[in-house]
Amino acid sequence: MEPKIFLIDMNAFFASVEQSINPALRGKPIVVCGEGRTIVTAASYEARAFGIKTGSTPCEAKRLCPGVIIVRSDMNKYVGSSLNIHGILLRFTELVEPFSIDECFMDVTSLCRNGKTAADIAREIKKLIKAELNLLCSIGIGPNKVIAKLASKMQKPDGLVEITRADIPGVFETIPVEKLQGAGVGRKISEKLNSLGIKTAKELGQAGEDFMMFHFGISGWHLKRIGLGEDSSTVKEYSYSEREKSFGHSHTLPKNTFDLQTIRSYLLMLCEKTAARLRTAGMSGKTVHFYVRYGDFTGFGRQKSLKHHINKGLDIFSTAVDILEDVLPLEKPVRLLGVSISNLILENGQKFLFEDIERERKLTGIVDEINNKYGDFTIKPSSVLIAENFGIEDRCGLIGKYNFKGRKVSGLIGKNNLKIVE
Predict the structure, then answer these.
(1) What's the predicted TM-score (pTM) here?
(2) How far apart are CA 96 and CA 160, in angstroms?
(3) pLDDT tens, N- to C-terminus, the chain (422 residues)
(4) Is 115 left (phi over 0), alpha (psi -120 to 50) or beta?
(5) Number of folded domains in the chain?
(6) Would you say 44 and 15 are in contact if contact means Cβ atoms under 8 Å apart?
(7) The domain containing residue 184 runs over which residues?
(8) Which of 33, 170, 187, 267 is deepest in the core (most CB within 10 A)?
(9) Could you tell me if 298 and 201 lie in one domain?
(10) Residue 240 lies in a domain
(11) Residue 80 is part of a domain; what is its CATH number?
(12) Does residue 52 sit in the same domain as residue 110?
């Protein structure tokens, strides 16, 4: 039997997640942006109708559509939705390989029996994702990953396209090489191919191997395979698939600054957000990377590896501050800060032996629950206020180590309750 590979591609993912969670946003033009000087990271299809694209600035979005709604991005929501999608796909097979936060490969070859077709399975998956998560997806079906990826981009939103091996010559005869960008041919490569007279996927497949390797090196051999619609890579089992290799956040400051107190405050905010994503994925890491971009767009990056794995914001922050202090004094005013953590492992959920450590773990979990429900930094370290006063909207006046609705938080009462002490 010809292999049946899916590429499940969520439509306008970040914006669609926001609309699925907040009914007031449904059917309206919305864009998802970061904080400060930022760009559009996702636009709903209603916003795209006005010409708004990923990479536009918020000002451009408002100019194109004065009624556009700007929503602050929340990676915890998107990672959580992505994991929920994985859960639905895993009901069918373990051969589910995440490709990005909003895309998954899936091998359903063994499921296509007793009259059940790949298209039938794809329709069932689309129905479940819509019913349980109120999200739409496009599914491409092909004999390999390259063709499945190409098919997934051919009908959006809410599409379902199958390209069989027999279909490939006809499809590739007229399809421009630019359309192969999603299947492994990048924009710059497609531009170079055009300059060499290679305009269609068919022409790419017919190009001489020596010619391709002369112009593209070893990548030329791979590009020719794409032009032939060939791909020998397999879909990995979910438990063995390549998980995210790192988690991180960056932020462009409202204005360039030398002020170390402000820089540390923003850094703590980024570390807390990174740690929350780590815990949502059930992972810990031990290599912290810190990077700075100056106002003239030069900058540097440094990393430090620990002897043990961590997943708490203050632990990541402590390591990042060590890196920062090693490079002081700063040469120029800072425009952007970033932090990430890699060298990851899965947490095993094991309870800690010592009561204080276990108590802290539980408190961290409850803080995550509240922040996931009410928004980032509903509960937060007090020094984040400095960053908020420097340009981020203050969601609740914070006093003390942690804060909930303007009141100090300490310890636990019962199973899932914070103790309000002031």
Answers:
(1) 0.61
(2) 18
(3) 799 999 999 999 999 999 999 999 999 999 998 766 678 989 999 999 999 998 889 999 999 999 999 998 887 788 889 889 999 999 999 999 988 889 999 999 999 987 899 999 999 999 999 999 999 999 999 999 999 999 999 998 899 999 999 999 999 999 999 888 766 677 888 899 999 999 999 999 999 999 998 998 888 888 999 999 998 889 988 865 545 678 888 888 888 999 998 899 889 989 988 998 888 878 889 999 999 988 887 888 899 999 889 988 899 999 999 999 988 888 899 988 999 998 888 765 444 344 444 455 555 555 555 455 555 544 445 544 554 555 543 333 332 333 443 444 433 333 333 333 33
(4) left
(5) 3
(6) yes
(7) 166-232
(8) 267
(9) no
(10) no
(11) 3.30.70.270
(12) yes
| Shared domain check, 407 and 269 | yes
For residues 119 and 174, membership in a common domain is answered with no
Tell me: do 136 and 190 sit in the same domain: no
Number of H helices, E strands in the chain: 15, 15
Q: In angstroms, how far apart are the furthest CA atoms of the chain?
A: 75
Beta strands at 5-10 and 137-142: parallel, antiparallel or unpaired: antiparallel
Give yes or no for a cis peptide into 157 (omega within 30° of 0).
Answer: yes
Q: Cα–Cα distance between 268 and 12 in angstroms, integer?
A: 30
Same domain as 283, residue 177: no
Produce one character per residue of 101-114: b if its CB has 16 or more CB atoms within 10 Å, e if not: bbbbbbbbbebbee
**Which tokens go with 211?**
């010619």
**Distance between CA atoms of residues 9 and 2, nearest Å:** 22
Catalytic residues, by residue number, are 103
Residues near 84 by Cβ (< 8 Å), separated by ≥ 6? Answer: 132, 133
Given the DSSP bridges, would you call strands 417-420 and 299-310 parallel, antiparallel or unpaired?
Answer: unpaired
- Cβ pair 351, 358 in contact under 8 A: yes
Structure tokens at 164: 């069989």
What gap in Å lies between CA 422 and CA 382, rounded to an integer? 15
Q: What's the first-to-final CA gap in the chain, in angstroms? A: 68
